[in-house]
Write a structure and sequence with these properties.
The protein is of the alpha/beta class. The chain has a domain of about 200 residues: Rossmann fold. It has 20 helices and 13 strands. The strands form three sheets. It has a six-stranded mixed beta sheet, sandwiched between helices. A five-stranded parallel beta sheet has the order 8-5-6-7-13, with helices on both faces. Helix 7 links the parallel strand 6 and strand 7. The longest helix has 19 residues. The protein is globular and about 60 Å long. The structure holds pyridoxal-5'-phosphate. Pyridoxal-5'-phosphate binds next to helix 12. Pyridoxal-5'-phosphate (PLP) binds next to helix 12.
Length: about 425
């Protein structure tokens, strides 16, 4: 299958090119040329299928022409070494728990899938050149990508993160790994990190020296596999007899996760509507209200993985809806919550229902509890384990939380990072020194 750029200037790319490049040369984002509708009988029968079967079917729709069936199935099954269960919180509100992977956030799915797919292409094409994956993180991407690629031959990973703006647990998950993983601590915010990465891709000199690729959610190999768990969530509701009028509420930052849901819906998944839940970085909500997209510098919140002022996947949402805000409004509504709202929500949901939300999932839960109709079934994406935000959540609940063993392992190790400024020349010098 071919992939076109949302800017429509760069020529179409093969899957291998789109995965290796990440961003298209015209700065657009790659989109699959077709989004095939899956057959009705797949949805009728979906309640009887396993997560691996469902995900393999979805993966085949996109990647089946490019990767042999057996290899693709292996990539899918290796990626999904953990489940994404749907848990009832109360009444018609369900939590899709996406934190059962190695780094306890949903980004494990895309990170693990991309690592496996990229190394499959590198093996096949065996041009012998090392690939350098650069990734900007607001917290959870870095750990998922770094852990997904750890020890993979032929691939070096450089993680850029904003100094002092990620939690200690998040930081430990990508600064303690060593081997082929390097962490750069940037004196700036997440948008600076993202800008440095984009500038590196645009720099002709650097691209002659190094084969650079991006593992941000702009990469099709990270973003498309996120559709797997929307189907699996629907299958679980179907088994529970609750699959009518399904509403997904997605805590959103760069909008990669919700875009994967929109793609699932295009493939025929019966979703009634979507809600994009924001923290105070509510550029998308403002766009829905005014029809005008105005990127803004991000502000810091306790749901820090959503502190994004210029969501990179906005271009994909526009592409899917023909640049029409009226069309977007038919499928997606928005909401925005302050830190105070988030705190209250975490406290209330724990008091009333005994369910511990993380600050991101709290926005998702709130988006449903404020907006869901009585004839609808709402699923919010619980995007990270609350223990990843231990200090915040313990402070709100006034009690200690149990830390899963796989997180405790990271906490014991020593942080190693290289400090750089937010100036592109600094980053460029560093990359040149590696070439
Ligand atoms: C990355 C992240 C988000 C935002 O996801 P996008 O795909 O960037 O919209 C939400 N919650 C958590 C915990 C995250 O790590």
């Amino acid at each position: 299958m071919q992939y076109y750029s949302t800017n429509h200037i760069a020529p179409p790319a093969t899957l291998a090119e789109a995965v290796k490049k990440g961003l298209a040369p015209d700065k657009g984002l790659y989109m699959p040329e077709r989004i095939d509708r899956l057959p009705d009988e797949f949805f009728e029968n979906i309640g009887n299928l396993s997560f691996h079967d469902i995900a393999t079917k979805v993966a085949t729709a996109f990647f089946g022409e490019d990767i042999p069936a057996g290899d693709l199935k292996k990539i899918v099954c290796d990626t999904l070494s953990f489940d994404t269960p749907v848990v009832n919180v109360h009444d018609n509100i369900y939590s899709l728990e996406l934190f059962h992977g190695p780094t306890l956030a949903f980004k494990d799915v895309g990170g693990r899938f991309m690592a496996r797919m990229l190394s499959w292409f590198i093996n096949r094409d065996s041009d012998g050149k090392k690939v350098t994956v650069i990734v900007a993180t607001s917290g959870d991407t870095g750990s998922a990508v770094a852990n997904g690629f750890l020890g993979v031959d032929g691939i070096d990973v450089i993680v850029l993160y904003p100094e002092g703006k990620v939690s200690e647990i998040q930081e430990k998950q990508f600064t303690t790994l060593g081997q082929n993983i390097t962490a750069l601590e940037v004196a700036g915010n997440f948008d600076d990190c993202q800008r440095l990465v984009k500038s590196a891709f645009m720099d002709a000199g650097l691209n002659r020296m190094l084969t650079l690729t991006s593992a941000n959610s702009i990469n099709v190999a990270r973003f498309l596999p996120q559709s797997f768990y929307y189907f699996h969530a629907y299958a679980q509701l179907k088994r529970a007899g609750k699959a009518e009028n399904v509403v997904f509420c997605v805590p959103s930052g760069n909008f990669g996760n919700i875009t994967a849901g929109l793609i699932a819906a295009r493939m025929g998944l019966p979703v009634k509507r979507f809600i994009a839940a924001n923290n105070r970085n509510d550029i998308f909500l403002k766009y829905l209200i005014s029809g005008v997209y105005t990127p803004m510098p991000s502000v810091r919140t306790i749901a820090n993985a959503m502190d994004v002022g210029d969501p990179s996947n906005f271009a994909r949402v526009m592409d899917l809806y023909g640049n029409s805000v009226e069309n977007v409004r038919k499928d997606i509504s928005g909401c925005s919550y302050t830190d105070e709202d988030i705190r209250k929500t975490i406290a209330t949901v724990y008091d009333r229902y005994g369910y511990v939300l993380d600050p991101h999932g709290a926005c998702g839960y709130r988006g449903l509890s404020d907006n869901l109709g009585s004839d609808e079934t709402g699923i919010f994406l619980e995007t990270a384990h609350p223990a990843k935000f231990k200090e915040t959540v313990e402070d709100i609940l006034g009690k200690e939380m149990e830390i899963p063993a796989r997180l405790q392992e990271f906490m014991k190790r020593e942080k190693k990072s290289i400090k750089i400024s937010a100036d592109f020349d600094d980053f460029k010098n560093y990359l040149e020194s590696r070439a």
